[in-house]
Amino acid sequence: MDTDVIVVGSGHNGLVCGAYLAREGYRVSVFERRDTIGGAVCTEEMFGGFRLDVGGSAHFMIHHTPIVRDLELGKYGLDYIPMDPFMSAPFPDGSIVEFFGSIDRTCESIAAISSADAEAYRRFIEYWRPFNEAVFEAFLKAPTPGAFGKSFFGRRVTAAGASKQELVRELLKSYGRIVNERFADERVRAALAWWGAQSGPPPIDAASAEFIGWHSLIHTHGPARPRGGSGMLTQALARYIESHGGNVYPSREVRRILVSEGRAAGVELVTGERVSARRVVSNAHIWVTFRDLLADWTPASLLRRVEQVHVGNGFGMVLRCAAEQLPSYACAEVPARRALNGIQLLCPSMQYLNDAYADYLRGMPARDPALVVMTFSAIDDTLAPPGKHTLFVWGQYYPYALRGGADWDEIAKPEAERMLQVLDRFAPGASQNVIDTYIQTPKEIARKHNMPNANVMHVEMVIDQMFMFRPLPELSRYVAPLPGLFLANAGMHPGGGIFGAPGYNCSAAVLRSLRGRFGLPRRR
What we know:
Layout: E1 3-8, H1 12-23, E2 28-31, E3 43-46, E4 50-53, H2 67-70, E5 80-82, E6 87-90, E7 96-99, H3 103-111, H4 115-139, H5 145-152, H6 164-171, H7 175-182, H8 186-196, H9 210-213, E8 224-226, H10 232-243, E9 247-249, E10 254-260, E11 263-269, E12 274-282, H11 286-293, H12 300-307, E13 317-323, E14 343-346, H13 350-361, E15 370-374, E16 389-396, H14 408-426, E17 434-440, H15 442-449, E18 485-487, H16 501-515
Helix pairs in contact: 1-10, 1-16, 3-4, 4-5, 7-8
């Protein structure tokens, strides 16, 4: 046996799984097809000294897990910089809504444009927090009825004066409706709805209330940004694995998962080399895993089920820019530069967001895209040469498959220019400071990260593909139908984003398998 556990792919979920297994004394080998590790949580140097993320950038969810603390990743080079305000929504009229770690400061910001909405926001936090504390507890366990029972029925999940029946009714609503019912000012509505849209589903989707409801916990564990780039998380995880006797191999692409005597027995690399293992963990997309890596094994019935998983048609594109200066928003009441400390939500109204989604449904890029702007060099001077900056611009909605057979490679530049024109409406002249740009269209995202249909959440985050249904009921507990094979990717419970929970939960399933029914530790 060459190793105890092979992890296919070095995305952060695979590395989290591998790190927990290495902590228990198992020999872990991670194989990555690209020349840099990290999957879609990766930072690369471009344009002469600029450090640009090429995948996920916003570290919100991982701070609600024990991963960084358990693995002591600070000892392996991970240094988080607090973001405060962690999020701002500037508007062309000079007004701004700022979201701070402090709820009081956040409410003060909202009160500057609507005192009624400031009080509504405080009530919103109080209403949704108890339920979401239970939700995040459930996120860190395999999605079984027993685990859900302990999380939701063994504790209070409603705010004082609210009933569980009322909560269920709220959960069945769309997050757009929640926002419209609870808040009056269109700017507050737009900021919250645009933030809720970041997981993919539009504001009109039924039973999507949780995409805004989980915001109630964001003040508890404030977002932070890794010094040196998003990829410092995966670099630290790789160092952890290597310091515990494992190996992380870039440029070692897996061609297929080997099956012997009815079990996953290792992998074959594109070089022809074979590596055997007691267990195999696939960090790859579910389609890649069963259609490509297990093409010789996957039964027709399972393949049919896997191909019916709703992967969707992508939903975003992003510009990674080197810049002379950062955007300057026309904020009349607050220091304009303060908004640059966190992400900036550029969406003037709910209707604007719905119009962008309508274009997406037509199979077209949004004519007026809503944007998320990220200016991390404002708080981290390691990302750019002295006096220069990095600027990331994420836009929605952008379909992977375009109407009429249009090709993203042909329209990438004009669509990038359109996004920068929208940025200029909020921060006049911002586009003139852009030095160079790496354009990640949906096609480029899919190509770069081997991510089918460019869905950065792997599969759609819709209610029938969440919890014990993610991505399919028979796969939801991280254990594949092929003995010895386990699944740790964003398509698993609880979902995508820089979270690590799928890898964390998968490691527990692998450990149970390795230790056997009596739970005996491995002999070192």
